[in-house]
Fold these 2 entries.
Entry 1:
Amino acid sequence: QAQLAESGGGLVQPGGSLRLSCAASGIGFNINVMSWYRQGPGKERELVAAIRSGGITDYSDSVKGRFTISRANSKNTVYLQMNNLKPEDTAVYYCNAVTSFGGYWGQGTQVTVSS
């Protein structure tokens, strides 16, 4: 059974850092794109960062220069290093994986930035 397991969320003070991880398992096809989305309180889900199988990355303007996405292809694992966190980064962060035959979502991990 396909599964995306996220970890690494938590409570952090403004200016702090967190590293999210997402491990994909049970997906029987090559994963073309792995991404992180987030949904803040009262907001729609938005793309935060994406990485393609060739290593090309894309970031939302709000996180450029602060967040870094990376991927361990051999392990079908994607990471999101988040630095200089701001209160507006508070959200549930979701991992997404896209293959040629469909997409998969994780259940989300809460990130709260507060003093």
Note: The chain has a mean pLDDT of 94.
Entry 2:
Amino acid sequence: VQLQASGGGLVQAGGSLRLSCAASGTQLRFNPMAWYRQVSGKGRELVAALFSDDSINYADSVKGRFTLSKGNAVNTVWLQMNNLQPEDTAVYYCYGKRIITNGEVWGRGTLVTVSS
């Protein structure tokens, strides 16, 4: 089972990026699927999480700017990031917790860099 993340890059402050996360190797659903981010020297923090009941939790720091949504394919989520700020610069990781087995899966990080 893998989670493949894509969509990071370099953007100026106020710009937008969309991250994509897609699972492969399983038909089991995840609950939740989420994005975390990590700045060098700090722990990973939750950015947004989508649960099986379609509820979504956001970090206070991204509310109103980031939107997590389901992709068109099963086990796919998109993170639309608008009005990006330099403090959003981090490596972003896709995360999923598989239902039934409760196995946790992390994708490779994708770097988001926001210049001022």
Note: The radius of gyration is 13 Å.
